[in-house]
Description:
By secondary structure, this protein is mainly α. It has helices at residues 2-9, 11-22, 25-30, 33-50, 55-58, 61-69, 74-79, 84-101, 104-116, 120-135, 140-188, 190-222, 229-249, 258-270, 279-305, 310-313, 322-337, 343-362, 383-396, 422-428, 431-450, 452-460, 468-482, 488-505, 510-521, 532-538, 545-567, 571-575; strands at 398-405, 411-418.
Amino acid sequence: MKLLSYILAYRQFLLVVFSVLVLLPLPLVLHAKEAECAYVLFVVAIFWITEALPLSVTALLPGLMFPMFGIMRSTHVASAYFKDFHLLLIGVICLATSIEKWNLHKRIALRMVMMVGVNPARLTLGFMSSTALLSMWLSNTSTTAMVMPIVEAVAQQIIRAEAEAEATQMTYYNESANRVLEVDETVIGQETNKKKEKTKPKYSNDAEKVSSKMDMEKNSITGAKYRSKKDHMMCKLMCLSIAYSSTIGGLTTTTGTSTNLIFTEHFNTRYPDCDCLNFGSWFLFSFPIAIILLLLSWIWLQWLFLGFNFKELFKCGKTKTVKEKACAEVIKQEYKKLGPMRYQEIVTLILFIIMALLWFSRDPGFVSGWSELFSENPGFVTDSTVALIVGLLFFIIPAKTLTKTTPTGETVAFGYSPLITWKEFQSFMPWDIAILVGGGFALADGCEVSGLSKWIGNKLSPLGSLPVWLIILISSLMVTSLTEVASNPATITILFPILAPLSEAIHVNPLHILLPSTLCTSFAFLLPVANPPNAIVFSYGHLKVIDMVKAGLGVNILGVAVVMLGMFTWIEPMFDLNTYPSWAPAIVNDTMP
């Protein structure tokens, strides 16, 4: 028993040692570059999936192992750890830092909820819409962390308001009953008065029983949080709606989530002649998917926890209930706390709009973009150029004047503070993700240089006999399953070097398989540990694991179905997916010794 406890205590250390040793015969026996690269790939994949080492630490292993096996020079591996992606990430984090520092994100969220209304179903849709909108530009994690305190305050205020309303109704009921008994006393006399005195405590006892039953019910669930099962279901609904909508919103832009950024950089590196993926084209194909999935998820969650009544939802001119009035008051008070829009918020909003417009108009595809101004050097100006231009402005534009008081009592200006400082930027910059992505790029380069990508493609070529829709469905389901137990960035980093050669081997447009797989990488809805937004909402104590499994399974199925629908409707003609493109190479058959 003591030995077992030690094994459990050192399980991560043992997993690292055994993984390295058990797989070691692969490069030692086969003596091929493909086998040596496969060894590195397996070790890194195991460490990423199990998190035996921190993800960013595991990402450094290719920089150590590729030079040792003679696959790539150390200088070449090191160059993979900082690419165009990282410049884009820096610019985006500058924007996110300013938005969160000056509370612009909170103002946007509250204003959207106020516009939608306070009907419970509409309120949920309002929170989901505002969360998805913010998640398009901020990280899913920070969006969830920002919105959840507002949602929690609204939910608790609704519960308190209903309790007060019921208490008022009970008081009114008791007073009415007492007045009736007093009339009986006057009319019937002393004999009836005795009966009334026997009867009078009965009303009081009934009220006490109702109150006692109510207290017992709320305490039996989670310690004075809920008055009824319906209140508990409402809290579950709101929590899950925030977690899922933050993930869905991140699908719509290349900067919305790290998996999108990782994929686009991998894709552009592997297929440099393809100029079909940029911020604008990504938004055009993914936005309809996100809108459809957001609405279906809203309907599914509403039906699962509170039931869905279309008649009540779209009924106009209906008098607001106590719950709706309480909810509206909370949101209104939260918005009032922000005060009038400040100079810093206005400047941040303007820069935010400028960045979005520049991204969209750089190379829209259907018309010439402003990148034509640099036609002498095509491909030199990218989305990261826009991000850096706007990002640098946050360090330049003054936010407020710094003053000091002189010995004579005079207040003088001695400097200014910009919209964001380097220290604030550093606190927001996800350096672990930057290193993780760099490790993924190094791994992909190693697979290409060693010939492992070609070997995998050749072995998977028999799958070409299957219908394309079935291959896409299988890969999407495989990715959706893996991303529940592995981090989203690790999942896309592991599977890209496999799926890209697969599409080339079976002579299918790589986008046909890679786009749905990339979107499905974000569909980590089942477990609290599947992604940070799930963990954040789970920490509020309203949910059980089984709640997330039931709700997440439905959203996963809806997500895969919507992605499949999009691939064979509006996305297919956008990228001409039915033809094998000239920018994608055909794989030459090679075999591993």
